Amino acid sequence: MGYKRLYKNLIDIIKEEQAKLGFRRESIRLYYPLSSLNHFFETQDTEEQMKNRLHGIPDFIKETLGDIKVTSKKERFCFYIPEEGSNYVHENTNPNEFIKELVEIVGKHGCKMEDIIALFKKHDKNVFVEEIHNGEFDYLIRFSEENEDPYYYCFHDEGCHIIYHRFLPEDYEDFGF
Description:
177 residues, alpha+beta, Phenylalanyl-tRNA Synthetase, Chain B, domain 1, 2 domains, four-stranded antiparallel β-sheet, three-stranded antiparallel β-sheet, globular, DUF based on E. rectale Gene description, DUF3877
């Protein structure tokens, strides 16, 4: 189960990157804190234990994303995904239309939270919206459990534009917002 969650997250992040920057056949480096990886595997591994676990990345991941190399330093893990991985995601997976639309909306001058909330509701009528005041973000938005998107989206209005960060639920909880 842990490798499947990791694999889905790697693909989701690559899709988000491609929505933001466009597709290029290039290698990618993605970074994860140890705590996030422990959430995927439902473990409490040390850095060394996680390095050993990730040394054995299953073939089903390597067959699509290529020969991933994993390194770590101070509980921060780097996943080096070769060009064939970004190419595979571009050519063999459905684009995440929601992410493409979200990137487009937040990239527009004059974007408002109402526009973002409307986008979420277009994709899920039962979306959860919470105004938060934690010094980091202004809103938390997430889809209902019936939706396949498990992420928590946090937004901050910086005056001239709105930024967002996407978290796994467990990572969001770790931050203690």
